[in-house]
Amino acid sequence: MYRTNTCGELRLADAGKRVTLCGWLQKSRDLGGMTFIDLRDRYGITQLAFNMETDAQLCEKARKLGREFVLQISGIVKERESKNLQIPTGEVEIIVEELVILNEAKTPPFTIEDNTDGGDDLRMKYRYLDLRRAPVRNNILLRHKMAQQTRAYLDAQYFTEVETPVLIKSTPEGARDFVVPSRMNPGQFYALPQSPQTFKQLLMVAGLDRYYQIVKCFRDEDLRADRQPEFTQIDCEMSFVEQEDVLNMFEGLVKHLFQSVKGIEMESVPRMTYADAMEFYGSDKPDTRFEMRFVTLNKAENNLVSGKSFKVFDEAELVVAICAKGCANYTRKQLDELTDFVKRPQIGATGLVYARVNEDGSIKSSVDKFYDEESLKKWAQACGAEANDLILILAGAANKTRKAMNELRLEMGTRLGLRNKDTFSCLWVLDFPLLEYSEEENRFFAMHHPFTAPKPEDVELLKNGQLASVRANAYDLVINGVEVGGGSVRIFNKELQATMFEILGFSKEEAQNQFGFLMNAFEFGAPPHAGIAFGFDRLCSLFGGAESIRDFIAFPKNNSGRDVMIDGPSAIDEKQLNELNISVKSIG
Amino acid sequence: MYRTNTCGELRLADAGKRVTLCGWLQKSRDLGGMTFIDLRDRYGITQLAFNMETDAQLCEKARKLGREFVLQISGIVKERESKNLQIPTGEVEIIVEELVILNEAKTPPFTIEDNTDGGDDLRMKYRYLDLRRAPVRNNILLRHKMAQQTRAYLDAQYFTEVETPVLIKSTPEGARDFVVPSRMNPGQFYALPQSPQTFKQLLMVAGLDRYYQIVKCFRDEDLRADRQPEFTQIDCEMSFVEQEDVLNMFEGLVKHLFQSVKGIEMESVPRMTYADAMEFYGSDKPDTRFEMRFVTLNKAENNLVSGKSFKVFDEAELVVAICAKGCANYTRKQLDELTDFVKRPQIGATGLVYARVNEDGSIKSSVDKFYDEESLKKWAQACGAEANDLILILAGAANKTRKAMNELRLEMGTRLGLRNKDTFSCLWVLDFPLLEYSEEENRFFAMHHPFTAPKPEDVELLKNGQLASVRANAYDLVINGVEVGGGSVRIFNKELQATMFEILGFSKEEAQNQFGFLMNAFEFGAPPHAGIAFGFDRLCSLFGGAESIRDFIAFPKNNSGRDVMIDGPSAIDEKQLNELNISVKSIG
Prior knowledge:
Two copies of one chain form a homodimer. Chain A is an alpha+beta fold. Chain A has 16 helices and 25 strands. Chain A is globular and about 90 Å long.
């Protein structure tokens, strides 16, 4: 047996015991007469003491040990003279009597400390060393706990975890598939699943009733920051349910996770329609940790900006304001910063109008020459702006302006400290449009996927061709402005499904070719069903209070889809290519 | 809300309640005045009653429903007149008042009954219908429970579940990889993992201490019956442990699974060396549900067969016997069958010698003309054969004869009813040879993998070049003659690892090229570590008492690696190939 205890469990009550510990040398301090070593393992850090007086030889040996050496020591647990109450083991130390060097270590390329000196690239290359650092290790442990608690909740709700296949079939619709050449079926390819969507629907046809899986999915997209070619979903589907049942079930999951993982009692999750989210936040995933709702100043029924000869506002499709509480004292420099912010190409506003509500209630705006005090007071009233508040206004084409205002709102939220990563605000966004029009391709696409059911009350609109107005029984779960999950009630009626395919421009042959096996399955008695999927990496990073998902994945890839640690992908040899019946084109 | 209850939960105590159920029409019986329907969902079957007298219209509607129609009914729970005590819901029925056809169903291509009339191919094509049958559904539910309980045990033992990547790097050693062309890295390929071996070792270097994962693995091999290109492992690794720790930990897992899933209290798992397994059972995975151990009749120190002018035995490298209890009365026909059995090409024995111990203790053998009663009695004694027992003897080259006798022993076990699928016998097989000599390639290969540690007491043999004699700290868990898991203590010392690579014929460059990232990681302080992996599909089928793993996989592939339900793999279009920078060779 290598050890009697871990480095995280000894306490004052253990004083006097003889123990054997194993771990890595975190750091050592040579104080002349005494040498102290912090021994680290996954569970904690325990201080080792070597005394020059009582065992000079052992102490000399200890002094020569390098950082990250792997050690096995035996000795007696003793109460420390100078205690460290920051850590649970900080009241004791081990008076070492035996020391075995289990393995030596080269000096690591960066420090194994909470705040390391290693840059991102180096940390990715030596990921196995980065994982030794407590913050990264804790992320991995958090992820484990999240998975455990997800399973605990869903198991208790009679969900069955079913593994769906990884080697499936490519579908041209949607994002790009990763494919796998089949040696046994020359010229043919498997695809890796972008999601188990069709399989989970088949499981409902199969009568499994409630399915879940924490499952790897794959998408061959150009990687933006913080996207991974392989990612993990909590994938769920239920039979004989309506939207309300799904919302309640998964609100329950989210509450359970907050309670069991973070110790937070979450109130019931508020709901907002997609239409409201767009109108009041300019986003289908509003960050509801703070209000600062949009106020439309040029409503048809109550236009507060037109007819005052200010062309920018008169000609704008949308004039929209937010109220930044207590910001009336913003300096010219700060206002210029905000103007620069909204004018950045990725945001694309042409300018920023402001109005300050002064201490005395008077209002000063950047468009004073067009609007008198009375007009400005109406703005302030509409925005709920009071003394010391700052009104920020953007104008232009509706969609673009909403998006820009969304960015500005988030920026103001950040500046005002309203986006604390330890505060969590959940929101259901409901009633998404069923279809989305692509100007480029001059046709409608499914916003969610082709199996999403329209709202029953909107089916008539669908049949009448009022496609843009049809709402779907689709829902997203948003936490702190991040879409962490989404799903829909599925179509289970074959006539309605046929109508959908027709609208989406599929010929009968194409529909049969791509979704034939699912369509066929639906002929044999499909139950009403609905589902949802959560981005597990994202959910973990959110719970961990981090922006990036990368540190919640044990071995992530970089933005070129490379694992720089193993240096993959890589070339394969000619024999392998021949067996697979493929060749690599010469790279011009 | 679609339903108030499932089809599996109503009992006599619910009589009088108004309920709403959903499910599939399992079968209907029209008795003139009454029509009965069995409504099925995942949870059970509930009988519906329609009365012609009280509601003729509803009853008429019910009569027209086809098998597998999806129904929603409301009605009153009532005590049944003729109870079916075989099923938990069999004391009640629902007097239906409302009936909604949620979906119609075409007549399924095979019956949805415990014993179906559907052949394998049809059942695979309509897998979603096969999954509706209770035996197949129960396998999937068993699998879920096995995964749950595996996690429960390992979580309690401080193992951390870590997801390792699916898109990794191809290694030419070992079985054939499935590969994935990388669009972003033209000419390069990811490989799908055959196991997370290197990653789990890196997690030990990273200090994770205890890792597990229930994980999909991939192997592009020609599929024998009951092998799947994608399969699932329970993959585990531990740090600061010796072999004994691993055996105890996973003996605990197996006991926990038997206890929690099957309600069987398993005794501690016996251990056998590889050498003994080969000598006494002719197999490294002996079925220990029954004894019938091999007895060598031509031992050098006690040769019971030589010098009696029977050339076959005199010239044989091995003469080996088993004793079939109570089989002395086997007829000539039965003995001929056994002879034919061992002479089949896949077994390859040249003949079978027998000796019967008669009621009166006299012995009659097929080689009476060479061996007198006294010789035969010595055989009987060596074999522990008593009155009415049958001794069966094979002779020839040692390895081949052992293998043949293994098959004969299993056949006799089956004939004697000693291989009950509800009896479970576990065994650790230990001390495997470290290396295996390939006559074909004229070199040694790692029996397990190149990171397996030799037994410390055999390291000298390794260094002296006595390679065939070196035993490994490797272990297999065998249940009922099936290898369900295997693992080893790993090498964590870089000099020893270098020696191993040298012996295995890797140049330094090759070793660096293939395992460089692991070797490099080991330079930064690798802890002693060891691990094991279990074939999860196989373990589930064993617990389910089935021979085939296929019915424990929701969506299995056939022997050509095809999913006949989705009809994949399939051709992909030219655009996709171009993006991936590959082309398909014309198929001659």
